[in-house]
Design brief:
Blueprint lengths: L2 E7 L3 E7 L15 E6 L2 E6 L3 E7 L2 E3 L14 E4 L8 E7 L3 E7 L6 H4 L7 E6 L2 E6 L3 E7 L2 E3 L14 E4 L4
Antiparallel strand pairs: 1-2, 1-3, 3-6, 4-5, 4-7, 8-9, 8-10, 10-13, 11-12, 11-14
Amino acid sequence: MAKIAFYEDRDFRGKLYDCKGDSADLQGFIRRCNSVKVDGGWWVLYERDNYSGYQYVVGPGEYSDYRRWMGFNDCVRSCRTIRNAQGLYKLKLFDRPNFAGQSWELTENTKSIQEKWVRQEVQSCKVLEGSWIFFEHPNFCGRQYLLEKGEYRHHSEWGAAKPTVGSARIILEL
């Protein structure tokens, strides 16, 4: 069962909001978010309402400060559970929009896309199995982008302003 608790202050203090499902607007429940406890499932937190802005993917555990989930600030305005987070994992990257150009398949976590694939950009991709997180930089750092099973014809479809992908991680249900 998916469940997440948002706290306005660090170290799980201040006003609390328990959430058990997708929420397009958290502002009616909390003004800011400085810590989170995930009691079930995997979640994507968004900086703005209606599932937009920076994305932060969190799994089961405790995050006593927004920097623990690689947050840029204490602004979390919407959230949703992640689906397809178990089973097989397969991702196909393309260096051109609309699934054109050179391609490469991933079936495991990759700390550095550029070390294994000479292309500097990922312009489109197909998530064939599972759910994945793209990170802007190598070693699973920087902005995060959730990719669930489906086709992404252009990097803007997964929320990126640029086609830079430094690393990719599978979302595993623990």
